[in-house]
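Sharing a chain and its predicted structure for anyone who wants a worked example. Both blocks are below, sequence first, tokens second.
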Amino acid sequence: MNQHPDLIAAVSSLSEEHSSAPFPPGLTGADRAGFDLVLPDSDISGCVATWLHNGGHLDDRRYRILHWRMSQLSVILTELRDDDCPAYWDRLFRMGQLVASTDPTPRDPAAPTAPRPAEHPVEPTPQELLADLYGYDQDAHFDTTQLREGLAQRIPLARLDKFLAAVKATGDPAVDLETATALLDRTR
């Protein structure tokens, strides 16, 4: 039985808003406070998507990743410039805070536990990779340009090229979530 339906609704609303917003222009590959901006965004968003998909629950490993990236984001927030789209990062932080508040294990926010080396970087499943891009919308379709932009920082370039070649080989100008997931899974 879900103990926090209002919290899930609030996180879901923030997540939908966040996933529909483009990554701030000019910030791919940029860093603030010594942290790459793409990584906290993708990891926190991935943890949030998994939390929502699991009905408000994460495993311990993902909670640790979430806390680790949230500690980085809290430092990043202090270094953002006006042209860095602060509202984008504030929304991401609010989502992460809400999800982190459901962690049953007390953690010291001043000393977050980085995932063990064997656990990070976490290689997400094809479903997790595409969840942010498609937003679990079974009717959404993306072309190769959109897929390249959405996955460029998330999977190795060689795998991305194989995946895009497989998408082009379908003969369709754009593919849905189910097709994209199946094609990405085959490119391992």
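Comments welcome. Confidence is low (pLDDT under 50) at residues 116-121.
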